[in-house]
Amino acid sequence: MIDSASKTWLVSGLLVAASILAGCSMGGDSSRSRHGHTKKDVECMERAIFFEANRSSRQGMIAVGTVVMNRVASDEFPNTVCGVVGQKNQFAPGVMTRPMNSKALPDVQEAARAVLNGERQPGVRNARFFHTAGYSFPYNNMHYVLVAGGNAFYEKRKKHLVTQRVPPAPIDR
Questions:
Q1: Tens-digit pLDDT profile for residues 5-55
Q2: CA-CA distance, 144 to 123, in Å (whole number)?
Q3: How far apart are CA 155 and CA 71, in angstroms?
Q4: Under a CB-based contact definition with an 8 Å cutoff, are residues 129 and 154 in contact?
Q5: Given 12, 48, 99, 101, which residue has the most CB atoms within 10 angstroms?
Q6: Residue 26: is it exposed, middle or buried by C-beta count within 10 angstroms (0-12/13-18/19+)?
Q7: Helices 105-116 & 58-73, crossing angle to 10 degrees?
Q8: Per-residue pLDDT at 47
Q9: What is the CATH topology of the domain spanning 39-161?
Q10: Could you please report the per-residue DSSP string of 119-163?
Q11: Domain ranges within the chain, ordered by starting residue
């Protein structure tokens, strides 16, 4: 039988342990920027932008980042940047593990930070999906909203609400 004082110490110890573990849940990086994002969030956003848009314009990079943030805000996807970017079969193969070697890396890093600080590509609107521009698919639920940086961005809608079945002209020719 545990007395009252022992229970208090036990509960206090468990609370301290839980708070320490919570700080470690992001790979040991619990420091957050003034916008609430960790260094790990920044790295994951950089990885999404690098592997999906590193050869494109800044508009294309911001558009990919906007899709990531739209997914984070959606109940249909994980609620963290790393959860979204690391979700299986959603982004480029090896997005979380391959090295990022390119002279474009400083531009990618700047774009990632800009997105995490609130910048969005307005043409993306609520789109949570994109694919390489120039590809076409037989689905009737793809409402295209933007082509930027070599990607076509789209919203999934009920087919009777789809008005733009062909991607619009690129904004960054």
A1: 444 444 444 443 433 334 433 344 556 666 678 999 999 999 999 999 999
A2: 10
A3: 11
A4: yes
A5: 48
A6: middle
A7: 40
A8: 98
A9: Arc Repressor Mutant, subunit A (1.10.10)
A10: ---GGGTT--EEEETT-----S-EEEEEEETTEEEEEE--GGG--
A11: 1-30, 39-161
